[in-house]
User: Fold this.
Amino acid sequence: MASKIEFVEFIAEQLREAGEITYRKMFGEYGIYCNGKIFGVICEDQLFLKITEAGRRLSPKLSEAPPYKGAKNYLLVEDVEDKEALTELVKATYQELPEPKPKKRKSKSADN
Assistant:
């Protein structure tokens, strides 16, 4: 069952104070970004955050689970109603994640 866009938009609205929140459809589900950096995924109307030390410290009771078959574990955030706690968790997770690598441009071959 794919995630509903209404749930994705709700999560983005809940997190608007964390930074510029965007999302992108990926493999029938959604990747979610803060200031251009992916910090989690939304699968089957559930929010999964990348595991960081800061995330574990802030929310030690969150369970770990793979968002889809064959994926590594993420933190499963079941309480998405607490806007302040969710924003704090996402900010801490975001800050600990590495910056995205710049995309390489395709160079034109001299043979063309």
